[in-house]
Amino acid sequence: MHDMFFLAIIWSGVFLSYFLAHKTKLTAVLYFLAFGSLMVNIGVLPTESTEFIRGFSEIGIILIMFALGFEEDSSHFIQGIKRSWGIALFGALAPFAVAYYVTLYFWQDSRLSIMCGLAMTATAVSLTMVSLKSEKLQNTDASTGIMTSAILDDIASLAAVAILVPLATGAADVTLLGVAVVLGKAALFFLVITGLHLFIFPLSSELRLFNSIPLLQRFGIIQFIAFSKGEQATLAVLLIALLISLLSYQFGFHPAVGAYMAGLIIKQEYFHLFEEAETDHYNQTKKIVDNVAFSWIGPVFFVELGSKIVFDQSILIAVIPQIMILTLGIFFAQIISAAVSARFTGNYAWHESILIGFGMLGRAELAFVVIDIGYVQNSIITTEAFYTLMATAFCLNVAVPVCIKLWKPYFAGSKVLKIKMAGTDFTLSKNKK
Fold it and tell me: Is residue 31 domain-resident?
């Protein structure tokens, strides 16, 4: 019964968070994180979540990312990748460098600094995408730029973990073969997704290979969705999302990446099951998926994420200088590096580039994996460094919805922001035509 009690507490917090978000006009994600942290620190929720709650939260993030991908157009996403390489590259190098040198200055341990740099590298895209959705900005070019950059960032971070963790732990020598295996698995995963998108899912295609295999036209995803006249369409697409999530996990990605890719390659046209269908199966499925993802299952992930922040007052007070310097350093380095890269390598407008910079601030899944490797499994990260990293991640996660909320008027053009440099005025907000 403990699991049911914890779930009741979490759902109560989710309901309260939505109430507070409505009253304050801030995104509910901010309150999810704060509620989880508060409950674990006052002893209502356990410091180590039960297996049930952990599994429930994993389902939540898979649903969230699938729902977000379900809304996105795949061609739009591919175009976004071409513009996002610079954001991913420089947006990862800057926070790594800041975290490495700040922690090296305080603790003079290069192995510890490597782990801290890795922990602060990858972006928590799920938090950002939910924050964007709460402000109705999830379908903008900037949102696609954030998502594509974060996926490229995730790949680069996995490669960096493969290279640097063995070096930091002393468990193995760094080899070109090990790096090549990581990059090869990433390439193979996206090749599999491309194959599903081009050959398995469509009913028709201009590709010669597709048309030369009649079996592909008879047993695709449309037949799967059309089972029982489309009554099980929601179950069908959720099963696909879960299977691709499991596949992405086998390739070394977080399952949320696979869920997003699953939503991305499932098109609205696949739901046009019958010529005279009385039910709009696409919108019906989308409504159900959005409800479970953003109302009652998905939020559990963010409350669970907030519950990772367990504070010891004496240690926390002792590391306040480290927390402040690391948080401010990564905050400005991440925003500036991502925004400048978006402007000059992705050709985004300044108002979009700054939103991308804010959207790249979050730290979650990979950060906690690296922290677990360094603190729990290998004792490289000290207790003081652990608290510094956890508090910094919490502050950066809180900053995401707040910054997006504050920037929205400038992004939409309802407010104007200008800066003067070398006697010239530069408009950073959107120009209203």
Answer: no
Q: Give the domain extent around 271.
A: 62-297+318-408
Count of the separate structural domains present in the chain: 1
**Contact (Cβ atoms closer than 8 angstroms) between residue 70 and residue 282:** no
pLDDT value, residue 100: 95
Phi, psi of 421 (to 5 degrees): -135, 125
- Residue pair 149/360 in contact (Cβ under 8 Å)? The answer is yes
Task: Specify whether the CB–CB gap between 198 and 75 falls below 8 A.
Answer: no
**What are the tens digits of pLDDT across the range 272-283?**
765 555 667 788
Distance CA 336, CA 331 (A): 9
User: For residue range 191-223, what is the model confidence (pLDDT) as tens digits?
Assistant: 898 888 887 787 666 666 666 666 666 666 777
Considering only residues 237 and 422, tell me which one the structure prediction assigns the higher pLDDT.
237
Q: What whole-number distance in Å separates Cα of residue 82 and Cα of residue 403? A: 26
The answer as to whether 196 is a domain residue is: yes
Mean pLDDT of the region 342-369: 85
Q: What is the pLDDT of residue 88?
A: 85
- CATH code, domain carrying 193: 1.20.1530.20
- Is 253 domain-assigned? yes
Q: Is residue 40 part of a domain?
A: no
pLDDT class of 246 with cuts at 50, 70, 90? very high
Q: Token digits for 277?
A: 């269908």
Torsions phi, psi for 43 (to 5 deg): 90, 10
pLDDT attached to residue 429: 76
Higher pLDDT, 310 or 7: 7
